[in-house]
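We treat protein structure as text, and this decision shapes the records that our systems exchange. We quote a single record here, exactly as it is kept in our systems:
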Amino acid sequence: MKIVVIALGKIGLPLAVQFASKGHEVVGVDVNPTIVKAVNEGIEPFPGEAHLQEMLSDLVPAGRLRATTDYADAVPGADAVVLVVPLFVDADAKPDFGWMDAATAELARHLTPGTLVSYETTLPVGTTRDRWKPALEAGSGLVEGEDFHLVFSPERVLTGRVFEDLRKYPKLVGGLSPAGAKLAVEFYEAVLDFDDRPDLQRGNGVWDLGSAEASELAKLAETTYRDVNIGLANQFARYAATVGIDIYQVIDASNSQPYSHIHQPGIAVGGHCIPVYPRLYLWNDPAATVVRAAREANAGMPDYTIGLLEGAHGSLEGARVVVLGAAYRGGVKETAFSGVFAAVDALTSRGATALVHDPMYTDEELEKLGFVPYHLGEAVEAAVVQANHAEYASLTPADLPGVRTFIDGRRVSSAEQWTGVTYRVIGKA
């Protein structure tokens, strides 16, 4: 098959590589010429994705994968087009379709009969049918269900382990017609491999959910569940700390029963997915009070954590405080919706001098994000762990000269490592 992948980001490029590794001709489209140039040179444009560089090194020289900024070069004659263009959400939970609309318009201009079009970007329910179908038909002059087929198939992977996750989880598809869904099942079966999953009654593989709307909701539901669960864990943690209970023992005890799956509390919920997709769900279902309450609870955790610091340390006026971790989670160089922003704001509002450290970022990169960089070994009065980087598990007071208070927002350390320092963790008195 000739396959086109639109948007060669941290999900799209590994997808393109995966498709090419199965013997297909793959063309990636991206508006960023720097990314296109790197891909065509067989160089990964971003670090941290397992196996990506080695696969690029094989596939690009073999002529199986190339990239372009030109839709006219890539799209005509394609058997399948997969779009993974970002969708953004503003502070009021309103989706911003700007980038996706632009990509869809360009795709439509060059769409030819016989193409399967699959959107993988997480969307509000109804978007595939009500927005993308009319846009593609108007721009191409073709008729969906006759000249081309349109489906929704959400990505379900985490950056850093995309190839592993593609094998591990069922690939969900939902079409606008049975014929489109059948084509999508055949397509994804031809480009993906699946691990054996005896725990799944339906078995691992490509699952047709019966409609694009069901497939859209499945992705929103699985991610919103995580946000609500974390919100509940954070509520438990905040209460437990007021009555002298260790919430982590409670969670372990509760989860020993097979119907309890309580997640871990923490300083923040970040990334492109968990903080965003509940807002997309709320766009469809504004009466979802449980979802809204959990999102508000999680959004308030950075300020709550700085409040813990203030309670343990005393006034933060004039104090030098380092936030450990700019990334939204450990081992990933990405700050999307990271708790670092709210933590720095909360420190600044209390009169502290907020510093930021992250082993994955240079001083220049931290400064571009608006932060004052901190280096281990410099004097500081307090520290707050925001990202669970592996490097932070071995920190001691010697790394933070002068530290009096250490707030472990991700439970990466232990009180034993902080002799002579006030050590606090979310969910413990």
Q: What stands out?
A: The two ends are 59 Å apart (CA to CA). The first helix runs from residue 12 to 21.
